[in-house]
Design goal:
Blueprint: H1 5-11, H2 16-28, H3 37-53, E1 58-65, E2 68-77, E3 82-92, H4 101-118, E4 122-123, E5 125-132, H5 140-150, E6 156-163, E7 176-181, H6 190-207, E8 211-216, H7 223-227, E9 232-237, H8 256-273, E10 276-277, E11 286-287, E12 293-300, E13 302-307, E14 311-316, E15 322-329, E16 332-337, E17 344-352, E18 357-365
Parallel strand pairs: 3-5, 3-6, 6-9, 7-8
Antiparallel strand pairs: 1-2, 2-5, 4-10, 7-9, 11-18, 12-13, 13-16, 14-15, 14-17, 17-18
Helix pairs in contact: 1-8, 2-4, 2-8, 4-8, 6-8
């Protein structure tokens, strides 16, 4: 995986203030145990958030557990090429009879922000943004969803990314996140989970300042999916918050800056796994140096680059895969053979000999 400038631009839209304020709002609903009014109010807040954004496929699964009416909230964004194959990003919003700002307000606001950023982005695969309830009572909501939706519909799931308790600990350096792979239950899905988790770790480093540690998946809402043979991965905090499952699980005891960084990582990962692409027509190239010229554009077979300095030229497809990797272009005019490259839209980028950005744009190959 390499850095996709389009994905990076979207991930960089995450702001600290947005994350902080949303965590504070989550906390203000108070206790989120199964029978609490706080849990009901949090569900209403989440539903309103997606409705206000303009999502139209919002499903509220209502079910009874231990005499309590509970709600899973499922938002679906349809893919352009694979509408019936789903990338799922999820996080539970209930808590263990406490505010639960870290466990799991952190995962809740990350899923919400990723959804906001991707709402109008084209993706080849469909995405489900899911807020489960009843996780703290034994993955009640995710079990219900798997048994009543995934299995009956024979749902085709590309990958599930679970985000649970990722807020870090106040006063500590929270620059490492655990990327969790499947090492439990059914072994036939482990190898694929290993590969996806390695990819998740790479994407996390590309789109945020977070470092990663590979760990094992356990004790969260991905387990009912794992037991059904699905491919899972997840995020979990490296510095475990000592206030977990207590009244002290509040914002002042966690690190909202690390939540912001992980939101960027989760955004980049969701863009990559769902194969997001830029469908807009870019009419003006972003060239800092007006003495660099690329022509013709659209192009066919041969590309010409004129430059008044030695530069490097990189060409990527719309999901960030390098087609031409940093070839050296000497001062003057150079011819590049693109006959073997498939027709379509691509991103190009110029860097100088100090690896500094010189320009970028969109190239159409006929």
């Amino acid at each position: 995986q390499t850095l996709n400038p389009y994905y990076q631009g979207i991930a960089e839209e995450v702001s600290y203030d947005t994350i902080y304020n949303r965590l504070q709002t989550f906390e203000n609903f108070g206790n989120k145990g199964l029978s609490s009014q706080g849990l009901k109010n949090t569900a209403k807040w989440i539903i309103y958030f997606y409705t206000n954004l303009g999502f139209t496929d919002i499903k509220v699964d209502t079910f009874i557990y231990s005499g309590n009416q509970l709600y899973n909230i499922i938002i679906t964004k349809i893919g352009t090429e694979y509408p019936n194959k789903y990338f799922i990003i999820d996080g539970h919003y209930d808590a263990a009879n406490c505010p639960g700002t870290d466990d799991n307000g952190s995962g809740t606001v990350i899923v919400m922000e990723v959804a906001r950023l991707l709402k109008d982005i084209n993706t080849k695969y469909s995405i489900k943004f899911i807020h489960f309830t009843g996780e703290e009572s034994g993955f009640i909501g995710s079990h219900y969803y798997v048994n009543n939706t995934v299995i009956p519909q024979n749902m085709d799931i590309l990958l599930l990314l679970n985000v649970d308790m990722v807020g870090g600990t106040a006063g500590m350096t929270n620059d490492i996140i655990k990327c969790e792979r499947d090492e439990a239950g059914q072994s036939q899905n482990n190898a694929t989970s290993y590969a996806y988790t390695d990819t998740l770790a790479t994407l996390t480093s590309l789109y945020s300042s977070m470092q990663t540690e590979i760990s094992n998946a356990y004790g969260s809402d991905y387990m009912p999916f794992e037991q059904n043979g699905e491919i899972i991965t997840g995020y979990y905090e490296y510095n475990e918050n000592p206030y977990n499952h207590t009244s002290g699980d509040i914002l002042i005891h966690m690190d909202p800056l690390s939540v912001k960084e992980l939101t960027k990582a989760a955004t980049g990962a969701t863009l990559y796994f769902s194969q997001a692409f830029n469908a807009s027509i870019i009419n003006k190239d972003n060239i800092k140096n007006t003495h660099i010229q690329l022509f013709p554009n659209p192009s066919n077979n041969v590309l010409y680059i004129n430059s008044d300095k030695n530069i490097y030229f990189t060409l990527t497809n719309l999901i960030g895969e390098k087609i031409i990797d940093s070839i050296y272009v000497r001062k003057g005019q150079q011819t590049i053979n693109i006959k073997s490259i498939s027709s379509g839209s691509y991103f190009y980028m110029f860097t100088n000999e100090d690896n500094k950005f010189e320009g970028s744009g969109k190239l159409l190959i006929k």
